[in-house]
Amino acid sequence: MSGKLILVRHGQSEWNKLNLFTGWKDPDLTAQGVEEAKEAGRVLSEKGFKFDIAFTSVLQRAEKTCQMILDGVGQSDLETIHDQALNERNYGDLAGLNKDDAREKWGEEQVHIWRRSYDTPPPGEEGESLRDTGARVWPYFMTDILPRVLRGETVLVAAHGNSLRSLIMVLDRMDKESILKLNLGTGVPIVYELNADSTVKSKEVLGDMSGAH
């Protein structure tokens, strides 16, 4: 019995639009972000998806995206589990800063390392690298999400660029160099079908990732 796992990065947030490091800060969706979330719901509805359960972070940009997708497939009241294990990577002292301003302050190379290295966290004791993010996302996935997929359920996960990248890294068996080049589009569903041993049977991206950042 093959289960399905649908991963969706939240729609554009106000801070995405302003080019700010966001992390655990909690800005709302923009009007464009709302449309992206609704479009994800429309696409999944057209494909005939019905979910058994949904998971999201405790940040409103992901929570609202999740709810709009469920509204779009006619499952507004579906059980939804909110957990900070699925939160975006914590950007520490960079949170709230404009990315261009950060480059001016610390230099292009240093900011690039913070943004794109696998295991170098940004400044500040709360800052997380992608490896740190995966260290909290993956155990939660293994204990709370994956067993339901393996039972044959169809599971929606609406989360964030880096929390989802840390999952995709393991699902797609990517190394730490190739995962750094992966960008996820806002509001674009990625559909996985898993085998009984949790390996990937099939993967389909329902949208355009070319403009992802």
UniProtKB/TrEMBL annotation:
Substrate binds at residues 9-16, 22-23, 61, 88-91, 99, 115-116, 161-162. It catalyses: (2R)-2-phosphoglycerate = (2R)-3-phosphoglycerate. The record marks 160 as: Transition state stabilizer. Keywords: Gluconeogenesis, Glycolysis, Isomerase. PROSITE patterns: PG_MUTASE (PS00175). GO terms for molecular function: phosphoglycerate mutase activity. SUPFAM superfamilies: Phosphoglycerate mutase-like. Belongs to the phosphoglycerate mutase family. BPG-dependent PGAM subfamily. It is an enzyme of class 5 (isomerase). This is 2,3-bisphosphoglycerate-dependent phosphoglycerate mutase.
